[in-house]
Design goal:
By secondary structure, the protein is mainly α. Helices cover about 95% and strands about 0% of the residues. About 0% of the residues are buried.
Length: about 60
């Protein structure tokens, strides 16, 4: 029975290790997705800022003429 118990423990430890590796992989993918989302938000905000600045410049030019 000792051999069977050892095999069960080994299989259990291997399954836990694989489970942790899968969880780590999922976490890394989620982190990359969060990073991509944040980068997209930054680009959107920068584009909006540039648009507002350009609009304000045009308004100033119209006021000056």
């Amino acid at each position: 029975m000792g051999f069977i118990d050892d095999a069960k423990e080994t299989a259990s430890a291997a399954a836990k290790k694989v489970g942790r590796a899968v969880e780590d992989g999922v976490d890394k993918l989620q982190d990359k997705a969060d990073e991509a989302r944040a980068e997209a938000e930054v680009k959107r905000a920068e584009a909006e800022r540039d648009s507002v600045q350009k609009r304000n410049e045009l308004k100033d030019d119209l006021r000056d003429h």
